[in-house]
Design a protein that fits this description.
The chain is an alpha+beta fold and 333 residues long. 42% of the residues lie in helices and 19% in strands. The protein folds into 2 domains: 78 residues, Multidrug-efflux Transporter Regulator, Chain: A, Domain 2, CATH 1.10.1660.10; 174 residues, no CATH class.
Length: 333
Amino acid sequence: MEDTYTHKDLAQLCTVSETTIKSYRRKFPGFIPVLTRGKPIRFKKAAGDVCLKIRDCFEKGMSVNETHKVLKEHFKEERTARPRQAAATPRQQATSSAVSEEYLEKFFATAGQMMQGMAGLATAQAQAGRRLQKLEQAVQQLVEIETRNSEAFAALLTQMKSPASETPPTASSSDAGPSAHEHKVRTRKIVNVRGPEGEVKSYTLEKEDKTEKEKPNGIERPSDAFLNTPIVIRSEEGEFLGVPGRLPLSGFIEILVREAEEGSASLSNWHRSDDAWVFTMQVPGGDSHELYFTSTTTPKGNLVVLLDRLDVNGKKTTPQFLQEFFRQVKDKN
């Protein structure tokens, strides 16, 4: 039968699979005329043109409804060829012929992607919440460390400024021991300073009567704890710059004294000016230098001595001059 087609003939004509031809029949039963229903099923010659048109529409990306409209414009639809509705299952009745399998596949694929995206968003929010909690804990620990360091430093400054808290015992006329003015008055206090890593450094502060400790031969001098503290300078950006090896203040003064003695310059000593210790010296050439040193802590919680100011012949120098002076002394270390 040359004017008829089987499923296989139609598939070869349209260069598609037989399964695809059968799906054309399910989607557009009224447009593909059946000639005989024996096996194999044979279709009328017009079925070839219909299948070719359906294939072209699907290749253009048209939906089932759009393809149905095109077929109605070019071919006659046989109503009697539609499958009986009574034989359809409830699920088939719910899914109308207007909804294509391609549409359903796209719908479920899109829904799956949305669910995956929502799951990923929920995971990211949970991780962000945990990171924020850790950050808040770290900030709280830094605040606590800074508070403890400030309290310890305030106690240290108070101890350095305050006079001896103990008084010598009063000797009676019948005592055989030394007289009252011969007794040494010693105040001892241990200050713990906690660093940013949690380490604790202890400083022992001692203070004797000024006639024997702070004023040897009538001259004031800083405590040993102050002299043994690393010296730094502050840059124009506010950063603390020290000497490699954490040179203490005593080592810094030793360099200045050595340079002055080599130039046969005369030296003076320490005196207090408000919260600062001032070291005055005569340098080669006859100029007078006054260096101001104060105690402070770095942002990491380290206790240091800051070279805060330099006066030459009673006039305050610029920060640039002070930094250059510090650099020259550092290079001589």
